[in-house]
């Protein structure tokens, strides 16, 4: 459920996570997902259980509409904005959002309570911890931690952080985003300082449908960015394109989606580039108990919620979509997934299964029936 204002500052941290309603027959071992596609059936069973939990919740939440929404923290404009958002979607969106949060919350709780899952950052391997800490941005003034996920509006969130720091005047200043400067990463703190922030700060992250994120990374990096074509594209073409003439120069600017997927299947999730590394590995939602997990699919609403929750001043807004923004449409995703050889697809989904299940996304329908349309 969406945290209410009164909860602020009293977040229990590392509270009992053993409310394991469900016992798995098979246990998911982080990092081993790549090898064991046997995990898939149990996760599917699990998803069905989660889905029915969601239904129950909806029934429970029949009373939800009568509950008052959390009082806005900011004054003036932010309240007005919230009222407008409220008008566009009279209550329904709010209830949906709370249900989704609750489903994610329950799923994460029960999956993470399995004994092989990490329970704190100390139970991560040094490599896992390093990746995590390098992806958590810190704001000491507003007391929050944001785990950024590339391809999930992270540039926009970084802009917001820079405005909150006072480095940028407004989120609309048209500069190219510098992804390192003027940002504070949790990895730059000492262990006690890290623990303190993890315990006391408001922690959030944003997620996106896993295949959509992957496709977005593929189209952006291999379609547009020369350094990626050189660094990854050349290697991928050399490794996977058997038909190429041996002495022809390889530019790496025409990697196909199937070749990219082959490359992903051969790469250890923990060593992937951050643009396609599973969100699970970037943000470790079992080791860090996030207070809020927003969705790219409800970016505007969820971002506004976070801004309100951290007490951002009213003039700090979440930026509008950039004009050059090219959305991944349902049709595009359908096309790419349906043209992918079944064998690759069957291995790809397990690789990202924790992102699907923990954050409550359906597995894509890639039956021949569905793909015919
Ligand atoms: C999950 O629920 C707990 C309380 O039961 C709450 O404190 C926490 O913020 C929730 N987390 C998310 C991501 O909604
Ligand atoms: C997949 O799509 C087909 C055709 O649209 C439909 O008949 C089938 O029920 C769907 N399967 C799932 C699991 O949604």
From TrEMBL:
The molecule here is called Carbohydrate sulfotransferase
Is this entry keyworded Transferase?
yes
Compartment(s) of residence: Golgi apparatus membrane
Name the EC number(s).
2.8.2.-
Return the InterPro entries for the record. Carb_sulfotrans_8-10, Sulfotransferase
Instruction: Read off the Pfam families from this record.
Output: Sulfotransfer_2 (PF03567)
Q: Where are the transmembrane segments?
A: 38-59
Q: Which GO terms describe its cellular component?
A: Golgi membrane
- Gene giving rise to this polypeptide: chst14
Coiled-coil ranges (or none)? none
What PANTHER family is this protein classified in? Answer: CARBOHYDRATE SULFOTRANSFERASE (PTHR12137), CARBOHYDRATE SULFOTRANSFERASE 14 (PTHR12137:SF33)
Q: What is the lineage of its organism?
A: Eukaryota, Metazoa, Chordata, Craniata, Vertebrata
């Amino acid at each position: 459920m969406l945290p209410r204002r009164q909860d602020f500052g009293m977040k229990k941290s590392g509270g009992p996570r053993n409310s394991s309603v469900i016992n798995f027959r098979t246990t998911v071992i982080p990092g081993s997902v790549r090898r064991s596609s046997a995990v898939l059936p149990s996760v599917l069973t699990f998803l069905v259980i989660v889905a029915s939990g969601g239904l129950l919740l909806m029934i429970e939440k029949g009373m939800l509409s009568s509950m008052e929404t959390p009082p806005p923290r900011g004054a003036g404009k932010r309240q007005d904005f919230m009222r407008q958002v409220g008008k566009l979607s009279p209550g329904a969106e709010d209830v949906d959002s709370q249900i989704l949060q609750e489903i994610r919350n329950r799923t994460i709780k029960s999956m993470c309570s399995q004994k092989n899952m990490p329970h704190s950052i100390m139970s991560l391997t040094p490599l896992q911890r390093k990746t995590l800490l390098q992806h958590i941005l810190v704001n000491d003034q507003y007391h929050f931690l944001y785990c950024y996920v590339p391809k999930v509006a992270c540039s926009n969130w970084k802009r917001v952080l820079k405005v909150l720091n006072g480095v940028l005047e407004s989120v609309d200043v048209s500069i190219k985003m510098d992804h390192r400067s003027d940002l504070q990463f949790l990895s730059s703190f000492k262990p006690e300082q890290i623990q303190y922030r993890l315990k006391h700060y408001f922690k959030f992250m944003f997620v996106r449908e896993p295949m959509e994120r992957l496709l977005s990374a593929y189209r952006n990096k291999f379609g547009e960015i020369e350094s990626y074509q050189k660094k990854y594209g050349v290697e991928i073409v050399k490794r996977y394109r058997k038909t190429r003439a041996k002495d022809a120069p390889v530019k790496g600017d025409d990697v196909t989606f199937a070749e990219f997927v082959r490359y992903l299947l051969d790469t250890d999730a923990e060593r992937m580039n951050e643009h396609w590394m599973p969100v699970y590995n970037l943000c470790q939602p079992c080791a860090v108990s996030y207070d809020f997990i927003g969705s790219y699919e409800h970016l505007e609403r969820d971002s506004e919620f976070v801004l309100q929750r951290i007490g951002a001043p009213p003039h700090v807004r979440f930026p509008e979509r950039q004009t050059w923004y090219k959305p991944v449409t349902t049709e595009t995703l359908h096309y790419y997934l349906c043209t992918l050889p079944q064998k690759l697809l069957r291995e790809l989904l397990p690789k990202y299964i924790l992102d699907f299940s923990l954050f409550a996304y359906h597995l894509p329908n890639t039956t021949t029936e569905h793909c015919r349309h």
